[in-house]
Amino acid sequence: MASEEELFASVDALLNEEPHLPPPAERARLREAAGITQARLATALKTTTQSVKNWENGRSEPKSPRLDAYQRLLNGWAAKYPAPGVTPTAPVAATASAASTEPAASAVETAHAPQAPAVPAAGPARLAARPAAAARRPASRKAAQPAADPRSPHGPLAVLDGDGSAYATGGIVLDCPATTVVELVEWTLRESGLGAPRLHRNGKDSDPLVVLTATAAVKLGLPERLEGHEQRRSLRLPEDHPVVKQVVKAKWRLTQRGFGPWARIYRKVQGRERQCVQLAILSWDALDERSWPGVAEMEPADIARVLGIYAQRVITPRGSTAVSGLELMTALRPPTRATQDPATGNWVPGHNPGSLGTEPMDPAPPEATPEHPVVVDSGWNGGFLNEEAYQWVRDVSLLSDEECTLPYAVGLDLNTAFLAAAARLVVGLSAPDHFVGPVFNPKIPGSWLVDLSHVEVDPRLPSPFTPDGTRPTGPAWYQTHTVAYAQELGYNVAPLEAYLRRETGAYLDPWHDRLKNAYVDTLADLGVTRDLDDRAFLAAMERHKDVDPAMAAVLAAIKATVKGGIGKLRERPQGKRYQEGERWPALQRPTWRPDIRAAVISKARVNMHRKLRNMATMTGLYPLAVLSDCVVYPSPGASPLAFLPYAASGKPQPGGFRLGPTPGLAKLEGVQSMLWAVDLMEQGYNPARHIKGGDAVLDEGE
Predict the structure, then answer these.
(1) DSSP 367
(2) What DSSP string runs through 149-197?
(3) Residue 498 phi/psi, 5° resolution?
(4) How does pLDDT run across 446-484, given as a tens digit for each residue?
(5) Residue 334: which of 199, 487, 435, 222 has the closest Cα?
(6) How far is CA 5 from the centre of its chain?
């Protein structure tokens, strides 16, 4: 007979066991009876919506301490809403009815889908009979809706998991039977209902995007990781890899980029129908952590939500955010439009006014890079444009005693400063023409050889004409906005030479408008709205990344799209095989336009200097350092409210830095000890770089 000690030990073991949850179906029943969405439950338990879905369909179980909290919640609901046998409440009856047959469940989900046209998908691409529609987050219901299009009822993209579940936008889950890449491409084009309509009437529809998780990639015969000495984003499958052979054997093609993290598989257009599918492999680092923070580690449904919102507000991703930024320019300004041939009466592709056309255009020698064939072949040695963002720190000897006694150094970062500079920016659309001794005209975009060394600027401010803030020492090449600013300061300018463009236009305007709306709308979803006063704005910005990690990732991707897209306008040669003087692939694009990149950066730098000058006039304050779009000021307090200029009415003074969520307005970037900042300056470091964390500036290499 067991002793008392043994019995108590057995009982204690039972008490220490993890609580047993009710069956998955009962968990869902109790939640629905309580009228709680999966998204709201996920928020309460500090987890993801996909995790709650997994618990309710039996794919996974919660772990302590979340398990204990979930058990307590279910017990409370069970007391309020008894198991079947008692007359069910209205929500339970609806759930029971919807779950009775698979067709009924599909009908319920289709009714919740964001598209109006009810176009059923053929064969296996039916909507899975899962509670996916209930799992949608309230914030994404508006944000992630694709445009109503009967040709793509399931949105622009899907994230494919190893079990064949393809998570589309809006909470839709499709069954994908593909076991090879070729089968996946054919399923995507014929049965998935994925895709997105064109962004411009003269443009092209977006190709469907399928994102592969690591398990899905392995299932399709791909390696889980790409290994090699080069950067992973540059790696490709070898041409003799079995998957590449399968693709070629099935008469599909790969682009010149090959089968890498972003693979585009296509056939030639037949009639008006494009046959192209974009693949992104998560485990091959398709989603760079810098541009998509935390997204690659999310559950498939949450990845689909993030990418779906980005696709709806910006563009269906087609590569890195830099590539997507460049593709967005072309999508909004298509190079061709339908024109009628007067000789035959047929409609043929013709040049679309305001676009960059279909053919690449060589820059003027001073606008090119030293390795460009225009420079190498001509032996050009006349200098180059140096229109780059600020990297400047004030000399310590120019700090006053009063400044050194202030306790704080406060960093202000301009919201998407380069996007703001692209607004209403007139750029050249035609080839450059060379002029000798021209009269300066601030309305003509181009490059001017002019001596600005005579322009006097307060030494406590950086020079507006050089990236390092030093005073020019003689003639140099400048973009139109830089020369116009010297004229604005009251100085005479007499260009020696110029390369100017006769045809001009605001090429980036639609690009600016779309990205600005995406940025402002996403900030609003994170609680940072335009109606906030400055104090409330700073508080909202301090916590916005914690409100919704998925939306914070979308915001980061939008910002990376701006900088990467502008940087991509002057992409440098990449790869070990490149030899100086050769033409590299980027030069074959009409969007390889270093002059447009220079115009954006010139305008942004001039805008920054104008604000610095106005701040000095209004407040007597001078910056400690400037890095790109971040400026650091000495401050009596730990908030920019302590030194920003305000009128007696409490409104911000125009002309200086102002706080707000709109591109071009400022936000708090960081606060440090003033003594710490001065110590950095004495060692030759830029305080802005340390406060800002070494932010990359207009990366050209993505």
Answers:
(1) G
(2) -TT-TT-SEEEE-TTSEEEEGGG-EEE----SHHHHHHHHHHTS---B-
(3) -160, 150
(4) 999 999 999 999 999 999 999 999 999 999 999 999 999
(5) 199
(6) 63
